[in-house]
Write a structure and sequence with these properties.
Rossmann fold; seven-stranded mixed β-sheet; 313 residues; 42% helix; 14 helices; DNA polymerase, domain 1
């Protein structure tokens, strides 16, 4: 299966994971297998182990084909929020590294019928798992206030209420079925001057719908909490984000894990006994180099954050 995707921040992720040849690693978003391939080729085929997960059936096929040359690699269809459960089923207590690439793959964007892109007319789908609740289901069943809330919170869309009202008005006549219909509703809901700012006018609303349909922020929060507990001391958690909501969540979770004393600042000595559970190897998020930006425009908003688990004392 052709699953074209240029892996973002590839070299930086490998450095961030600090891969040991005999370690156990989880790629929670295998996609086309780019990051997974680079992890697997750094592992001892007899001592190392890679667990590559993805919820998208297309990705599972593509990653399975690409990683078939590595006996140490195993590909499993699952959402990354289920990493602890997957490890339990495999009898693995702790791992030495976890990687998440939270971007929508080029394959998903460019496969028109998946409905992720606002640049082509297609059925309103946007389901990464290709099953369950779709974008069409959301837009034809949610009330105006609920739609406006997700457009505002997940897409940071200024004209969220106007878009939601116009969707509700449109569906009184017929169900909303295609991305093309949605794009036209969004265009008509945003003032002309605003449409000329900040790229395609539908970008923010499409992002919000995709996040809601796939439960992306809930999955990320669950994963950051649960999967961290499965890191061995010295194990690293690497997360690539692509928009501010994801990045803010990862930044705050990692900062909380790395925080030491939580006593009020006016206490003369620490009485809380709170110790940091992680250290942050990099002070700031890692961004794509100029060279990467030149060959992969879709990497422009990528940010990599890394946390390393400390030994319990």
């Amino acid at each position: 299966m052709a699953f074209e995707h240029i892996s973002v921040l590839l070299h930086e992720c490998m450095e961030g994971l600090n891969i040991r040849p005999d370690g156990i690693y989880v790629d929670g978003t295998a996609g086309g297998g780019g990051h997974s391939y680079e992890i697997a080729r750094r592992l001892d085929p007899k001592k190392g182990r890679l667990i590559a997960l993805d919820k998208d059936p297309d990705a599972i096929v593509a990653a399975g084909e690409r990683l078939s040359v590595f006996p140490c690699a195993q590909v499993i269809q699952s959402d990354f929020s289920q990493i602890p459960q997957v490890l339990d089923e495999l009898g693995i207590a702790y791992v030495d590294g976890i990687l998440l690439d939270l971007g929508v793959s080029s394959h998903q964007l460019d496969t028109v019928e998946r409905g992720f892109s606002y640049r082509a007319d297609a059925p309103l789908d946007m389901r990464m798992s290709q099953s369950g609740f779709s974008a069409a289901d959301l837009l034809n069943s949610w009330d105006v206030s609920s739609m406006a809330r997700i457009f505002r919170e997940f897409g940071e869309e200024r004209y969220a209420l106007s878009i939601a009202k116009n969707i509700e008005r449109y569906r009184r006549q017929k169900p909303l079925e295609t991305t093309g219909e949605l794009v036209e509703i969004i265009r008509s809901s945003i003032p002309a001057a605003a449409r000329r700012e900040g790229g395609h006018p539908a970008k923010r609303t499409f992002q919000a719908i995709r996040i809601a349909v796939n439960g992306e922020l809930d999955s990320l929060s669950q994963c950051l909490d649960g999967a961290f507990e499965r890191l061995a001391p010295g194990g690293r958690f690497c997360v690539i984000t692509f928009h501010s909501l994801e990045d803010r969540m990862v930044k705050q979770k990692f900062a909380a894990l790395a925080k030491g004393c939580i006593c009020p600042p006016d206490f003369p000595v620490c009485v809380c006994g709170h110790k940091p559970r992680a250290r942050l190897p990099y002070r700031k998020p890692i961004e794509p180099s100029a060279e990467e930006l030149a060959v992969n425009n879709r990497s422009h908003s990528a940010r990599l954050r890394v946390a390393e688990r400390l030994a319990e004392t």
